Amino acid sequence: MVLKNRLKEARAERGLSQTRLAEMVGVSRNTISSIETGQFSPTAKLSLVICIALDKKFEDLFYF
Q1: What is the pLDDT of residue 12?
Q2: What is the CATH number of the domain that holds 38?
Q3: Which residues span the domain enclosing 48?
Q4: Looking at the predicted structure, is the pLDDT value of residue 1 above 70?
Q5: Rounded distance between C-alpha atoms, residue 49 and residue 26, angstroms
Q6: Does residue 60 sit within a domain?
Q7: Which among 6, 7, 56, 55 has a CA at the least distance from the CA of 27?
Q8: Each residue's pLDDT tens digit, 3-62
Q9: Within a domain: residue 62?
Q10: 20 inside domain
Q11: At a CB cut-off of 8 Å and minimum separation 6, what does 38 contact?
């Protein structure tokens, strides 16, 4: 099952680049890109860290 997301939209709302968000959550820019395009589903921990960084609820960013 693929975890779909609204990460790109949420990141843009905050005015963050993929690189800046990656720095904030401790992953590579390629990881953020892969999550945004659905090539990679983040772990529960990484999902939570991203939600905190973007000040969003899990259900606002991720869905099945």
Answers
A1: 96
A2: 1.10.260.40
A3: 4-55
A4: no
A5: 9
A6: no
A7: 7
A8: 789 999 999 999 999 999 999 999 999 999 999 999 999 999 999 999 999 999 999 999
A9: no
A10: yes
A11: 2, 4, 5
Nearest to 40 by CA among 8, 5, 15: 5
Question: pTM of the entire structure?
Answer: 0.91
Length of the chain: 64
The enclosing H or E element of 20 equals: helix 18-25
Which tokens sit at 46? 């990484």
Contact between 60 and 10 (Cβ < 8 Å): yes
Q: Is residue 64 part of a domain?
A: no
Distances (CA, A) of 29 to 20, 25, 47: 8, 10, 15
**Nearest-CA neighbor of 50 among 39, 5, 15, 30?**
5
* Total tally of structural domains belonging to the chain: 1
